[in-house]
Every structure is written in C-alpha cells, then in structure tokens.
C-alpha cells in the first residue's frame, strides 16, 4: 500500500506522521506498538474484519478510539491510530511516498468484542 510519510517541525520538535493519500473518514492505519501494521476501511465490506469493524464503530455508535481501547484491553495489545493536531505545527519539512504492506485486523480479535 502506498502511503505518505510527512515530517513536521512542531513546537516540541520533529514529528513523523504516516498518512493515507486522499484519506476518507472511513479509513485508518492501525499502529501496533507505534508501528503501522493494519489497515481498516469500514466501508470495504469485502473483507470480513472490515465488516466486523463496521458493526463495532457504526452500528455500535462508538469511535475508533473506543473500539481500539476495548480491543487493547481484551487482547493485551497496544493498538492506536495516528493523529496530529494542526495546532502546534510550525512547518512541514519533508514528504515522501513509502510502500508498506498493511494487513486487515485479525478476525479473532474482533469476535464477540463488545
């Protein structure tokens, strides 16, 4: 999957962010221990784990952060999504395209989740 790695200069130093080009609000890169590992698109129902996340997020009316917090507790993992506030960004330093193979979330983590 082609992603964009951007380095920003913030008031607290340099920060690297990995983002999806032309990201939609239904798409996330899921980090495990601060390393990009998984890709979720809750509207791509052809993948079973995306369907399960669709149910947890949309049908359950929960945010992705709440769902990941529950999965972390249940499965003893450290999953997160990257977010960078535009407040505190001083300058964009670099931007490069990178290729990373991201998998769907494991279905066993999502079974009977909430």
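Sequence proposed for the structure above (114 residues):
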């Amino acid at each position: 999957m082609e992603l964009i790695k951007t380095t920003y200069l913030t008031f607290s130093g340099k920060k690297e962010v990995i983002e999806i080009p032309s990201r939609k609000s239904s798409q996330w890169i899921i980090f495990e221990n601060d390393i990009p590992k998984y890709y979720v698109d809750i509207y791509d129902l052809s993948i079973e784990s995306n369907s399960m996340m669709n149910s947890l997020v949309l049908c359950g009316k929960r945010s992705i952060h709440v769902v990941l917090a529950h999965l972390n507790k249940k499965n003893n993992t450290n999953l997160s999504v990257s977010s960078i506030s535009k407040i505190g960004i001083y300058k964009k330093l670099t931007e490069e395209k990178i290729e990373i193979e991201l998998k769907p979330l494991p279905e066993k983590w999502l079974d009977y989740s909430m």
